[in-house]
Amino acid sequence: MPGRGRVPTVLAAVAAAAAATVLATTPASGAASGAAPGVPRVAPTPQLQTEVSFPTRTVTDAAGNTLLADASGRTLQLHGANLGKTDDITEKDVADLGAAGFTLLRLPIQWSKLEPTQGSYDAAYLQHVEDVLGWADRYGLLVMVDWHQDVFGPHFPGFDGAPEWATRTDGIVFTPDPGNWFNNYFDPAVKAAFTHLYNDADLRQAQVDAYTYLAGELAGSPALLGYDLFNEPMWTSGTFEQDELPAMYDRLITGIRTVDQRSWLWIEPTVLVGEGIPPALPAIGDPRPGADRIGYAPHAYSTDVEDGGDWDASGGWVDAYESMIVRYPRKHDLPVIVGEWGPSNADADHPGNVELIKQQTASFARFATGWAIWYGCRSATGSGYCLFSDDQAHLAPGHAAAGRPYPLALAGTKVSERAAPGGYRLSYRPRPARTSQIVVPTGFGDRLAVTVTDRHGDRVPARVVVSAPSRTGARTVDVTPRGAVHTTWTLRVAAR
């Protein structure tokens, strides 16, 4: 976290407008309309409905990226935000994410809150986590439960993660660095605590027990995508990524799999990936029967931006990060969800950071199966990492690019994708008779024009359904081929 300074188809349960403000340039079909046979049909506008299917498999795209897919083989792209770390998450917070067109919630939890006393789990905290999963199911989101830590735990004032009873410092006194959050990781007391967690047999078992307990309690929750196993692991030796870290992941995965064979389990590299240092992790196995359900969840922060600066686009950081981060998951066939990203300030005083959000969302679309921005809070200007500008879940001005349309469930093979203010284009080779769904988040435009054409620019035989806007303006676009498909289609969505 930057403290550097932080299923089956479900209804999004939002109020649909009585009179939809949707335009479709593709004409309605049927004899009464006078439309020619084979011309795409634009159906009457339903409520916003997102097809957030639990991923049961993966597919590999032409670039070698592994993507999540549902049971029918539709590739999934999940966009969302972190919630619950810096505030008390409410049902409205979750509802707002769904109404804004987001489909992923990364939920930071802390071991210290789940097990404040060794061997005694907090029933109220567990109930809260279960409540969040229930809300997510209600409002059309999948949840990645993140076992979160910042500077190890609350033994070190102002931080969170492991409980006091699991913190061993060898009597070293912690000397905080209030001027640089990240420097606290290098304090000898903090390093000692991590070393003991990774190496002491009793602490290792206690950690496995806590993870296994929670997984057993949450197993089968419809909205549960899975677990991010350890937020931003801190290295303790030169061989940390070859020894201590994979050993910890192996222990935790083995424990969880004794009670949960369904969930996806996500591993993180160290935070050094943001500095352009590629991970040195070996392959991480999965003991579940059938195909592995292991994913890769790096973070994407620019140090200069985290230190309070405005991003300099001339440095090429986004391209360099993308080139480096894809190596490990492509080698080991892992889907990628970027679990945290986003600048601390994206406003009129930080135009570079606004551009950074634009470039990062474009980059993630090229290699990731999803992302969760930090953070789903509210600020009129977009400062403090905040995604929303108000209590009505409208995007903060500098975060407009985070509201780019995206193919939530694509029945076919993506050829290209491009988003710009007020315009979106997706070229793909569709599968016959299967529905693809594109989500158009809030802030894209008050009215939409939707066209679907073949590579020659001619309209195609398809059924197009554009939902009425949610209370925040989000919509879905469903496209279903009518008959065989022998060419690449291009879907265009424009704001009017």
- Class by alpha and beta content: alpha/beta
Query: What general form does the structure show?
Result: globular
CATH superfamily label of the largest domain: Glycosidases
Overall number of structural domains: 2
Number of helices: 10
Number of strands: 24
The stretches of 5 or more residues where confidence is low (pLDDT under 50) are 4-44
Radius of gyration: 23 Å
CATH architecture descriptor of the largest domain: Alpha-Beta Barrel
- Biggest sheet descriptor: 8 strands, parallel
Q: Write down the CATH class of the largest domain.
A: Alpha Beta
What is the third-level CATH name, the topology of the largest domain?
TIM Barrel
Mean pLDDT equals: 89
Identify the strand order in the major beta sheet: 12-11-10-9-8-7-16-14
How is the topology of this model organized?
Elements lengths: L9 E2 L29 E3 L5 E2 L6 E4 L5 E4 L5 E2 L1 E5 L8 H9 L4 E6 L1 H4 L8 H17 L2 E6 L40 H12 L1 H18 L5 E5 L15 H14 L6 E4 L26 E3 L2 E2 L2 H4 L10 H9 L1 H6 L4 E2 L1 E2 L9 H17 L2 E4 L32 E5 L1 E9 L2 E8 L5 E5 L7 E7 L7 E5 L8 E7 L7 E7 L1
Parallel strand pairs: 2-22, 7-8, 7-16, 8-9, 9-10, 10-11, 11-12, 13-15, 14-16
Antiparallel strand pairs: 1-3, 4-5, 6-17, 17-20, 18-19, 19-24, 20-23, 21-24, 22-23
Helix pairs in contact: 1-3, 4-5, 5-6
